[in-house]
Amino acid sequence: MNENLAALIPETALLGAAVIGLLTGSWLPRRRQWLVAVLAAAACATGLTATAVTMATGGEQTVFAAAFAVDAVTGIGRLIVLVALLLIIGMSVATVRGHKRETEYWVLLLMTGAGTLALIGANDLLMLFAAYLLAGVPAYALAGFAKDAPGTEAALKYYLMGALLGITMLAGTALLYSAGHATHYSELARTLPSAPYGLVAVGLVGVLAGLLFKIGAVPAHFWVPDVTDGAPAPVAAYVTTLPKVGGLIAGYRLLHQAIADSDVNWSLLLAILAAVTMTLGNLAAFFQTSVKRLLAYSTISQVGYLLMAVAITTRSDTAQQSLLLYLAAYTVTNLGAFAVVTALPRARALADYRGLARHRPGLAAVLVVCLLGLVGTPPTGVFLGKLEIFTATIDGGHTWLAVLAVANTVASLFFYLRWLGPVFLTTDAAPGDARAGSARLLAVTAYLAAALSLSLGIAGQAVLSAAEGPLLR
User: Fold this and answer.
1) Contacts of 160 (CB under 8 A, 6+ apart)
2) Pairing of strands 61-63, 68-70
């Protein structure tokens, strides 16, 4: 058994920082609790460094009875999550600085980030479910962090949906175990093809139900708008970003490593879910006036596009690269839009952004880059990601799905332009900014996210090359 803890430095760095931060924050005065945020950022930097070294030196391996895989997919997933956590930390300072529960916020964020990293490398059904819980339970608390009525409602809906579909996922795990007599993906790949079809099908649907909740796809999407609207803006940025990364990569690994040779037609099932998810998300976003609810339905539609790559997991040689590139591009682009929302806390409706280009041209430029980026406008990273996914989908035999995705992409331009329209109108009143002490950090976070979105569009080939490595069993 390979018990090399050095292979898990990014995960242990986040969990270690969470424990140290909780203990340290218990003794720090309120005005000094920002040190825990510095500790959280240092843990992310440590994880990024360790991941870069592993990818550069070829340290791919499976650890702890092969329950966790450290391969190219894990490496890219770690980079996405850790960069996203740094951006979320940057946009959270304005919300929690000086708060009486500031330490708890950073600790919960670190723990849910570690759970997301565990989802990415999970190579065993039990590891997958444990990661689901670690990523989910702290997130429920974060959703209700403000302890106001909308936040309490958001946390309750998030928890109830998560508990229900978590139980469904656990039942699916039990069924797959009874069918394949194992929980490790490589063993399941060997035994499931000869197992009873109905047992495998129901078990797989149960496990996928939990992952569909995690990513916010139809039919497990009902919580997304209310949680995004009710939670603090940085938490909403987390909810619409990181769980998608963990859930989609976990689903890709499960299907590729354990279910690929099964007779269950999971490819068609996921293709249909992708089609319904992207269409429903776009249609529901058309006439939203709240910026956070618009971004919530936007993330549902984006998940539909991302599910296309999971649907053709074993049908196209470029499914893996296209999924990882799109995830990286969507993550930074979505976080850039939320950074602008966080920087303007009193601008809650589309009309409140009137005159932004005149009074805050930098933030207006970020909003233009990120919203047009979410559409898939060149030269942003989402454009290249969509191009790769659409091509891979056609190569995987789902041309109808690619055509529908193109139609949805064109239609989505309508509601993003509804937001950008007021930005360029002239008015004497400026949208309300965050507190002066945090406004600069929020602006830097927004600029960095927009720059990363553009960089991925220009240098996306580097991500595609790094993501070509095989999955380990």
Assistant:
1) none
2) antiparallel
HSE at residue 366, side-chain half, CA atoms within 13 A, is 28
Q: Cβ neighbours of residue 400 under 8 Å, at least 6 residues apart?
A: none
Alpha helix ranges (H) inside 426-467: 436-458, 460-466
What torsion do the CA atoms of 353, 406, 271, 220 make, to the nearest 10 degrees?
10
- pLDDT tens for the chain, 473 residues: list them: 688 888 899 999 999 999 999 998 888 777 788 889 999 999 999 999 999 999 888 878 999 988 999 999 999 999 999 999 999 999 998 888 877 888 999 999 999 999 999 999 999 999 999 999 999 999 999 999 988 898 999 999 999 999 999 999 999 999 999 999 999 999 999 999 999 999 999 999 999 999 999 999 999 999 999 999 999 999 999 999 999 999 999 999 999 999 988 889 999 999 999 999 999 999 999 989 999 999 999 999 999 999 999 999 988 889 999 999 999 999 999 999 999 999 988 888 998 898 888 888 999 999 999 999 999 999 999 999 999 999 999 999 999 999 999 999 999 999 999 999 998 887 766 565 545 456 788 999 999 999 999 999 998 888 888 888 888 77
Domain boundaries, the chain: 265-473
Report in angstroms the alpha-carbon separations of 425 from 223, 341, 346, 359, 421: 34, 18, 18, 11, 7
Residue matched to tokens 């060997």: 190
Q: Is the peptide bond before 29 cis (omega within 30 degrees of 0)?
A: no
CA angle 178, 181, 185 (to 5 degrees): 110
Going by the DSSP 8-state scheme, the letter that residue 255 receives in this structure is I
CB 295 within 8 A of CB 337: yes
For the record, the structure tokens of 347 come out as 């601008």
Indicate the residue type of 103: T
How far is the C-alpha of 141 from the C-alpha of 159, rounded, in Å? 9
Instruction: From 337, 346, 412, select the one nearest 367 (Cα to Cα).
Output: 337
Q: How many residues does the chain have?
A: 473
